[in-house]
């Protein structure tokens, strides 16, 4: 997976002498891949949007939803062209859904993108990388659609398709009075614990009567006393959330004269979740009602026994077709990565492909290509699968009954109900779409990967014949034209890309321009004259290539031999001679950018050349005692590189160096970083350098056998289970004296809250008048009082668990038309500082803000309201000040934050501007900072703790100075923002002649984060998010960073010390790749150092650690295609703009350590903080355990949750 971590990437070492030609060939951006054999389109995952993709596919495959959405034209929704007009009301979300559904139906691509849709949701890049609950998304998306479609013919789209009503009835057994309560719902959540089947769960929840008697009496309003009663619960006019493929809902619905067939529902979508409560992955099983896809799969007539132990004779094992096919038949979908195929082959027969088959059949990939009638290689040749319609003639007896056929089930007659034909089910997993059988659904009803959300349609819903297998059905004309034009453009791009992808760039090294020196080939004059670049079509043959070279080299005489060459540390080495003029370049496994040596096949410059990996030259570091002029050995050790063929005997080293035979010692690096030396036994002197395990860069120490002095330096207790509880704890918070401070009230889940309150008042022996002016409020684990619970609720309806704590408080609970709200001042809310109000749900945002300001005693009108999100942070502002709280879906118990500052107008941003000086403060900066710190109320300066321990002379803390706020249009560019920031009152104190001398960063976690690099890009394209904070950094000269440029802070280590010189900015062009070798080459050029003597490391300030960036990680192997190089953007480096890179010159500093004294102090401080935090957590757990033992409620830590929201404009 990681390659050889200790193997050097020599491309950077040899680039000084052997460049790769005169130009850089960049690969054009490929168009999206066409649809696969299912003819259905997936959706690309943006990082954490699998839950969104599963729900969108379900809605797309719901014909009634899709066609109702398509029926809304531009006259109702508006158009994209008008979305930036100030007075136009363009309903972006339904428009983007229409376009996405049209792409899923008609655009010939493997997967569609949801970027435009999530942009219309108002999501930032952080929200696109974070996974949420799909049921939560379903409710929020439906709510957003309802809001977006207000005033259109689709205003009731959601309620018409998904709305249902639950009916709760309580019947008094004495007077037969019926108390009825109805609740609306869009989906049902069904509990399955301790229930054998989900039909039983539905029966228990919605049909069986629950009796109130004995200690659980019901307070009847007619009898005006506690009586025995029965409660039943039903729902009507809806679908069901259950497991069966077909379900009859009549037993669960109110009885009517409707035909029984109207209660039959068929399952058509199963959203599946794999993982735990706080993460995992979603995909979806979907029934293709309209048969839009090609439902085709492999159906096995008999399951073959493909165990290779059944191969009885040697001939079967010798046939690679039999072995490879048997391995693939054991894999899911008969598909496997090529690398794993070789590993499984080794595991099965005990020999690798190279040892068993390569000599006769060639490389594995070439063998798979030559048998394309059986094997199918992916476009990048990374995976291989069995062709689904191949015929294999030479198969053994044990496999002859293993004939697989394609079976395509088609409907018997168009327009028939799906129940009369084969149901077409597909597994849609983000971009991938695979057909499945109906019985496969049952496998997802249990285990870690199981059904999570199910969708049903009425069985009686008929589809018109013209909708069958017709993706253009009901799609509006403007979308049909848009998709047709997009398909034509895709076809054109694919044709251009196909032509471009078939061109190879070959580097021809001309033999007459080379000479053999120091164990390898080197140019006689220069790189330019000795090497030519040739662009050639890879579909042509090797003979065509040879003929083209003959035409280019008019002076060539004699035979022409083409050999594959590689650049190694010693120089240019020849490996394999290319034979077979009838083979195409693909079949010869020539890679793009391959080095080809053109020669006569015998000698270069009169010297016979050995070829192949066996004689590959190795560069070894040889250490020995320096010899004086008198021939005596000095005590000074000399180290020098020498080149030896890897197939030469180790003993020839003494002859080559003209030194007396002595003792040889080789070194190996241990994990601890120490160098261990081991003596080479005399019997191993006949072994080759390769057999001894030596490689490029290995060290060999020669010691005189007569000298005895060594040249080497001296070197649980399980917590008891909690019993079931049947009581609640009520505390007296009425500020009235009583004998008891808290009491326990017996209850069940069906006990009414009013009964508990009356019992508590009696137990406390308080005044009876308190019954009319008190309420019960839940107390959370932190001791906070929550929203009052209505008296009419049962404990189950109020979602109160047994053993919970309640507070008996003065004041009535809010009525059904009132809201109980918490509010606090500012965004940094401390526990216990919230205030409370009760307002009517029809109160406007403006009036609610006035009430809050009056209660808190705050003057002025420069305030606005924000809703606190699930992360207990300030969420989106409530922009619509005239809207009612009910319209904005504000609920009882919500917390609103009163934030200082008026909201910017729609389409504008309010950006907080900071000044950032990374290289240490000047005297002017210090004095200004001191003046600012004298005004703590302004809070102008804060420091980034995450940058503590910065190396060398970089200040321990990075300071940011607050300059002020800028109100600017979303359509303004970054340079406009810089110009406006320069007009702030505090800005003239800093020298910046123009916006071009300012570098802009987003502020993340109170320190510079993402670099904003394009001055002309509109601000809205940066997705700045809710908190628009930008810091500006001064520059000494103008800069224009391109999209491929990476900005790094580089520091040279001072030799002999544990310190660094001040940082310098380095711009690294990553167009050549994000490899370690490319970065090291750039650093070496920047500091004018030899690249092989340059060592670099990335600094992680939060850990006070340096991680060396090694480019010695690519193995040079015979005839192996170019390996995908490590990407420094990924693990473990995660390189980004602004990172600190430490640099060491190995010529003067060969110490492996990059750390500083400050790093040691920082690690020690972190260790002490972690120890103190651990003790605090243990004390807190002990305190929590004591606190909850009496209540029987053990505290359970839970990670913070992130809220999900979709931002919708006002269309009222």
Question: Briefly, what is this?
Answer:
Residues 41-459 form the USP domain. The protein has 1212 residues and is α+β, with helices and mostly antiparallel strands.
Characterise the protein shown here.
By secondary structure, the protein is an alpha+beta fold. Helix content is 21%, strand content 26%. The protein has 25 helices and 53 strands. Strands 9, 10, 11, 17, 18 and 19 form a 6-stranded antiparallel β-sheet that branches. A 6-stranded mixed β-sheet has the order 44-45-43-48-46-47. Helix 5 (92-106) packs antiparallel against helix 6 (115-121) and helix 5 (92-106) crosses helix 16 (477-501).
Topology readout:
Blueprint: H1 11-14, E1 42-43, H2 50-60, H3 63-70, H4 74-77, H5 92-106, E2 111-112, H6 115-121, H7 125-128, H8 134-148, H9 157-162, E3 164-172, E4 178-185, H10 198-206, E5 210-212, E6 218-220, E7 225-227, E8 229-236, E9 246-248, E10 264-276, E11 279-287, E12 296-300, H11 314-318, H12 320-329, E13 335-337, H13 338-349, H14 353-361, H15 364-370, E14 375-377, E15 383-386, E16 404-408, E17 425-429, E18 432-436, E19 449-458, H16 477-501, E20 503-510, E21 514-517, E22 520-523, H17 527-530, E23 531-537, H18 542-552, E24 561-568, E25 571-577, E26 595-599, E27 603-604, E28 607-608, E29 617-627, E30 633-645, H19 652-657, E31 663-669, E32 675-679, E33 699-703, E34 727-732, E35 742-746, H20 753-764, E36 774-779, E37 805-810, E38 818-825, E39 835-840, H21 845-856, E40 863-868, E41 874-877, E42 895-900, E43 908-916, H22 923-933, E44 941-944, E45 958-969, H23 974-981, E46 998-1004, E47 1007-1012, E48 1029-1034, E49 1045-1052, E50 1064-1069, H24 1076-1087, E51 1094-1100, E52 1105-1108, E53 1140-1145, H25 1157-1189
Parallel strand pairs: 1-2, 20-26, 29-33, 34-37, 38-42, 43-48, 49-53
Antiparallel strand pairs: 3-4, 3-8, 5-8, 6-7, 9-10, 10-11, 10-19, 11-17, 12-16, 13-15, 14-15, 17-18, 20-23, 21-22, 24-25, 24-26, 27-28, 29-30, 31-32, 31-33, 34-35, 36-37, 38-39, 40-41, 40-42, 43-45, 44-45, 46-47, 46-48, 49-50, 51-52, 51-53
Helix pairs in contact: 5-6, 5-16
């Amino acid at each position: 997976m990681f390659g050889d971590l200790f193997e050097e990437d020599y491309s950077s070492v040899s680039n000084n002498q052997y460049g790769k030609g005169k130009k850089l060939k960049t690969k054009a951006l490929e168009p999206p891949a066409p649809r696969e054999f299912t003819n259905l389109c997936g959706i690309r995952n943006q990082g954490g949007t699998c839950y969104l993709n599963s729900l969108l596919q379900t809605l797309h495959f719901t014909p009634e939803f899709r066609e109702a959405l398509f029926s809304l034209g531009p006259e109702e929704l508006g158009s994209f062209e008008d979305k930036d007009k100030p007075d136009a009301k363009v309903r972006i979300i339904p428009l983007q859904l229409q376009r996405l559904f049209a792409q899923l139906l008609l655009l010939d691509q493997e997967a569609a993108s949801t970027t435009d849709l999530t942009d219309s949701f108002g999501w930032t890049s952080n929200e696109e990388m974070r996974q949420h609950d799909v049921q939560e998304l379903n409710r929020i998306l439906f709510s957003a659609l309802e809001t977006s479609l207000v005033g259109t013919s689709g205003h009731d789209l959601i309620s018409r398709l998904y709305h249902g009503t639950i009916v709760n009835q309580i019947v008094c057994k004495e007077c037969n009075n019926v108390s009825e309560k109805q609740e609306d719902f869009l989906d049902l959540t069904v509990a399955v614990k301790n229930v054998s089947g989900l039909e039983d769960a539905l029966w228990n929840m919605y049909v069986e009567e629950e009796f109130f008697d004995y200690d659980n009496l019901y307070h009847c309003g007619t009898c005006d006393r506690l009586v025995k009663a029965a409660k039943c619960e039903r729902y009507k006019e809806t679908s069901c959330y259950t497991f069966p493929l077909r379900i009859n809902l009549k037993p669960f619905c109110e009885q009517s004269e409707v035909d029984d067939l109207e209660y039959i529902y068929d399952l058509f979508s199963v959203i599946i979740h794999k993982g735990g409560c706080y993460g995992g992955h979603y995909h979806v099983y979907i029934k293709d009602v309209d048969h839009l896809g090609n439902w085709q799969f492999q159906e096995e007539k008999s399951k073959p026994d493909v165990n290779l132990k059944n191969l009885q004779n040697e001939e079967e094992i010798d046939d690679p077709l039999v072995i490879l096919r048997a391995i693939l038949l054991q894999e899911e979908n008969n598909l496997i990565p090529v690398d794993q195929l070789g590993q499984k082959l080794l595991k099965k027969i005990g020999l690798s492909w190279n040892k068993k088959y390569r000599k006769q059949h060639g490389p594995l990939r070439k063998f798979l290509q030559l048998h394309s009638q059986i094997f199918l290689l992916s476009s990048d040749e990374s995976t291989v699968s069995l062709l689904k319609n191949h015929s294999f003639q030479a198969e053994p007896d044990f496999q002859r009954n293993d004939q697989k056929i394609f079976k395509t089930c088609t409907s018997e007659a168009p327009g028939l109900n799906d129940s009369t034909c084969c149901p077409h089910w597909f597994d849609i997993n983000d971009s991938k779409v695979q057909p499945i059988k109906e019985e496969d659904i049952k496998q997802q009803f249990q285990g870690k990967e199981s059904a999570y959300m199910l969708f049903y349609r009425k069985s009686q819903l008929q589809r018109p014949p013209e909708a069958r297998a017709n993706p253009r059905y009901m799609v509006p004309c403007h979308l049909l034209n848009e998709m047709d034009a997009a398909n034509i453009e895709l076809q054109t791009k694919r044709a251009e890309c196909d032509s471009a992808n078939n061109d190879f760039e070959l580097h021809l090294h001309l033999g007459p321009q080379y000479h053999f020196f120091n164990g390898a080939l080197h140019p006689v004059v220069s790189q330019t004259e000795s090497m030519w670049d040739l662009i050639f079509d890879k579909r042509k043959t090797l003979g065509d290539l040879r003929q083209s070279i003959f035409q280019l080299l008019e002076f060539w005489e004699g035979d022409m031999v083409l050999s594959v060459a590689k650049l190694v540390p010693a120089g240019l080495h020849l490996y394999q001679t290319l034979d077979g003029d009838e083979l195409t370049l693909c079949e010869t496994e020539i890679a793009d950018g391959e080095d080809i040596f053109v020669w006569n096949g015998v000698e270069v410059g009169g010297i016979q050349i050995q070829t192949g990996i066996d004689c590959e030259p190795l560069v070894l570091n040889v250490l020995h005692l320096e010899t004086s002029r008198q021939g005596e050995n000095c005590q000074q050790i000399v180290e020098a590189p020498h080149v030896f063929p890897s197939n030469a005997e180790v003993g020839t080293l003494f002859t080559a160096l003209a030194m007396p035979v002595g003792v040889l010692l080789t070194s190996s690096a241990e994990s601890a970083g120490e160098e261990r030396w081991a003596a080479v036994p005399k019997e191993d002197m006949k072994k080759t350098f390769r057999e001894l395990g030596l490689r490029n860069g290995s060290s060999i120490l020669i010691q005189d056998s007569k000298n005895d002095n060594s040249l080497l330096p001296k070197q649980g207790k399980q917590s008891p289970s909690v019993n079931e509880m049947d009581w609640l704890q009520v505390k007296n918070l009425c500020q009235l004296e009583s004998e008891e401070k808290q009491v326990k009230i017996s209850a069940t889940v069906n006990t009414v809250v009013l009964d508990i309150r009356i019992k508590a008042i009696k137990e406390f022996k308080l005044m009876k008048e308190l019954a009319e002016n008190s309420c019960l409020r839940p107390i959370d684990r932190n001791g906070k009082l929550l929203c009052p619970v209505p008296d009419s609720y049962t404990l189950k309806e109020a979602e109160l668990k047994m053993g919970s704590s309640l507070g008996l408080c003065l004041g009535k609970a809010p009525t059904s038309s009132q809201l109980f709200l918490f509010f606090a001042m500012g965004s940094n809310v401390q526990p216990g500082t919230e205030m409370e109000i009760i307002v009517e749900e029809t109160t406007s945002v403006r009036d609610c803000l006035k009430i809050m300001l009056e209660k808190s005693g705050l003057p002025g009108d420069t305030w606005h309201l924000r809703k606190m999100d699930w992360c207990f942070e300030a969420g989106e502002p409530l922009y619509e000040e005239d809207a009612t709280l009910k319209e904005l879906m504000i609920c009882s118990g919500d917390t609103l934050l009163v934030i200082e500052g008026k909201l910017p107008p729609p389409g504008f941003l309010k950006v907080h501007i900071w000044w950032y000086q990374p290289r240490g403060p000047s005297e002017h900066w210090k004095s200004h900072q001191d003046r600012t710190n004298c005004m703590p109320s302004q809070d102008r300066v804060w420091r980034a703790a995450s940058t503590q321990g910065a190396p060398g002379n970089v200040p321990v803390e990075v300071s940011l100075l607050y300059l002020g706020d800028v109100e600017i249009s979303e359509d303004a560019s970054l340079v406009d923002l810089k110009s406006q920031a320069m007009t702030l009152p505090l800005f003239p104190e800093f020298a910046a002649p123009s916006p071009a001398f300012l570098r802009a960063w987003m502020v993340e976690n109170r320190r510079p984060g993402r670099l904003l690099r394009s001055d002309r890009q509109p601000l809205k394209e940066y997705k700045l998010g809710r908190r628009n904070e930008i810091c500006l950094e001064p520059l000494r000269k103008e800069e224009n960073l391109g999209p491929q440029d990476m900005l790094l802070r580089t520091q040279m280590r001072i030799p002999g010390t544990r310190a660094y010189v001040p940082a310098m900015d380095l711009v690294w062009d990553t167009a050549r790749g994000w490899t370690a070798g490319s970065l090291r080459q750039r650093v070496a050029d920047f500091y004018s150092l030899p690249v092989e003597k340059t060592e670099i490391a990335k600094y992680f300030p939060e850990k006070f650690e340096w991680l060396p960036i090694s480019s010695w990680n690519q193995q040079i192997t015979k005839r192996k295609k170019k390996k995908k190089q490590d990407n420094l953007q990924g693990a473990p480096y995660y390189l980004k703009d602004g990172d600190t890179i430490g640099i060491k010159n190995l010529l003067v500093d060969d110490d492996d350590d990059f750390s500083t004294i400050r790093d040691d102090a920082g690690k020690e401080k972190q260790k002490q903080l972690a120890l103190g935090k651990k003790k605090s957590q243990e004390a807190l757990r002990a305190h929590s355990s004591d606190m909850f033992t009496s209540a029987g409620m053990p505290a359970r830590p839970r990670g913070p949750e992130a809220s999900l929201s979709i931002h919708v404009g006002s269309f009222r």
